[in-house]
Amino acid sequence: xxxxxxxxxxxxxxxxxxxxxxxxxxxxxxxxxxxxxxxxxxxxxxxxxxxxxxxxxxxxxxxxxxxxxxxxxxxxxxxxxxxxxxxxxxxxxxxxxxxxxxxxxxxxxxxxxxxxxxxxxxxxxxxxxxxxxxxxxxxxxxxxxxxxxxxxxxxxxxxxxxxxxxxxxxxx
Amino acid sequence: xxxxxxxxxxxxxxxxxxxxxxxxxxxxxxxxxxxxxxxxxxxxxxxxxxxxxxxxxxxxxxxxxxxxxxxxxxxxxxxxxxxxxxxxxxxxxxxxxxxxxxxx
Lengths: 172, 104
Hints:
B: 3 helices
């Protein structure tokens, strides 16, 4: 259990530091690299929670797919001139208000402690030996309980593919 | 050291959500704003997986929802970057506050 705790804090630090660097670096390429660190931390958290399938999806899809897309777009839109300008808009008051609101909610929960949540005790039981693995159980649930949302999601992805191709065409 | 509970994951998720919100609100570069939206969606996913784990060792409904969130994030990113390329071709800028065609 101790090793779980240590790894949780390592991955949490990766996630938060990566996130903070993402929103503070001037150069968008540095932001993208920091975002990779943050997403890898999230992937490690999935692994800690025995969600092995999501761990693989996170690394293949986010780190392998979306980040390459981001870097390609940064390359396509030439950002050298933009990097010289000031990178932050004058929206700090709004941002501080949003942070203060969520911090107030979190502080209220912290003040009331465990009784504010009514969460069932975590069932960190050992998965029965010989039972179905994580990927198999996710697949069972996805293709039986959530078949209709799955098909709708595939239509959504088709629409996104067509839409992005149309958007990026030379003449709309 | 205390064992890690669901509340730890909720606190981490809230912190990541705040970081993403501040990024969306304060950055001018649209590419970085989109990256901040990815951070927000990942915060949601951390919460979903943590609750899925809290409700039982073989409970995967939260993980399935996280898969749907990831699919949405991919679709959103693809369309948004396509729009960004079209925008850059027409307006020669990727700064969010220079695209003020609808501003009074």
